[in-house]
């Protein structure tokens, strides 16, 4: 829907900030509990020991809920409000992992 304006963003901004041993992973959506756990685990696997992950939702825009594929299939409230479909969480995890990997590569002194 695009009248009177686009109802959903065509481009979704994601970012990762590193301050010392804390990585702040931000995105423009509301994660379900299980989505947050999956995102956190995938990012923690890429970080050096001693780093903490903070997930900061609702940054830069709004894409509604981000549910797991299982929650999306069930179509309860959060699953039904995941506007980009079943694989929204997987796409966000893949993109955030790429950002963390790039940050690890350029932030040699941070480790």
What is the number of strand segments?
Answer: 5
Helical percentage: 25-40%
Helices and strands, in order, run as EEEHEEHHH
Strand content: 15-25%
Count helical runs. 4
Class derived from helix and strand content: alpha/beta
Gyration radius over CA: 15 Å
Low-confidence stretches: none
Question: Mean pLDDT, nearest integer?
Answer: 92
Report the major sheet.
Answer: 3 strands, mixed
Task: Please describe what this structure looks like.
This protein is α/β, with parallel strands linked by helices. It is built from four helices and five strands. It has a three-stranded mixed β-sheet, with helices on one face. α1 runs parallel beside α4 (88-106). The longest helix is centred in the C-terminal third of the chain and has 19 residues, at 88-106. The chain is globular, with a radius of gyration of 15 Å. The chain starts with 14 loop residues before the first strand and ends in a 5-residue tail after the last helix. The mean pLDDT is 92.
Task: Name its key features.
111 residues; alpha/beta; three-stranded mixed beta sheet; 37% helix; globular
């Amino acid at each position: 829907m695009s009248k009177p304006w686009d109802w959903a963003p065509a481009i979704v901004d994601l970012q990762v900030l590193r301050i010392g041993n804390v990585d702040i992973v931000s995105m423009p959506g509301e994660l379900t509990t299980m989505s947050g756990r999956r995102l956190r685990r995938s990012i923690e696997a890429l970080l050096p020991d001693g780093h903490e992950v903070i997930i900061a939702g609702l940054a830069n825009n709004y894409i509604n809920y981000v549910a797991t594929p299982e929650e999306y299939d069930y179509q309860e409230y959060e699953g039904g409000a995941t506007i980009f479909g079943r694989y929204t969480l997987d796409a966000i995890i893949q993109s955030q992992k790429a950002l963390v990997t790039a940050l690890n590569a350029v932030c040699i002194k941070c480790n």
